[in-house]
Specification:
The chain has about 110 residues and is an all-beta fold. The chain is about 0% helix and about 35% strand. The protein contains no helices and ten strands. The chain is globular. The two termini are about 25 Å apart.
């Protein structure tokens, strides 16, 4: 788990893994949140998720963000860079303000 008031990262790819460096075997292995912050800036060069082996439930396969300050929303800015397929599966555990950063193509889906 990474905790900071502001988190900025560039990601080639991210796949959540357990202590054996394998996909999570079940939901009990997945931490409550991978990131704890109220400001997350992601520059994506690839796909990011935190899969549970054999699970096709996308909300459960997300990289989860918990708010550092629970009364404030989490500001999430996601910029996609490059021409290849990019998918990001982020879930904010609370209120969020999400934007597409410097990306000129808007999100296909945000729920």
């Amino acid at each position: 788990m990474l905790t900071a008031p502001t988190i900025a990262f560039a990601g080639l790819s991210f796949t959540g893994v357990n202590s054996s460096w394998l996909p999570y075997v079940d939901a009990s292995e997945k931490p409550a949140a991978q990131l704890v912050s109220n400001s997350v800036n992601a520059l994506l060069l690839g796909s990011m998720n935190a899969p549970i082996a054999g699970n096709t439930n996308w909300p459960l396969n997300s990289m989860d963000i918990a708010p550092l300050f629970t009364l404030a929303p989490v500001n999430v800015s996601v910029s996609a860079v490059g021409g290849g397929f990019q998918a990001v599966n982020l879930r904010v555990l609370g209120d969020a303000i999400v934007d597409s950063g410097v990306t000129t193509t808007p999100f296909i889906q945000c729920r």
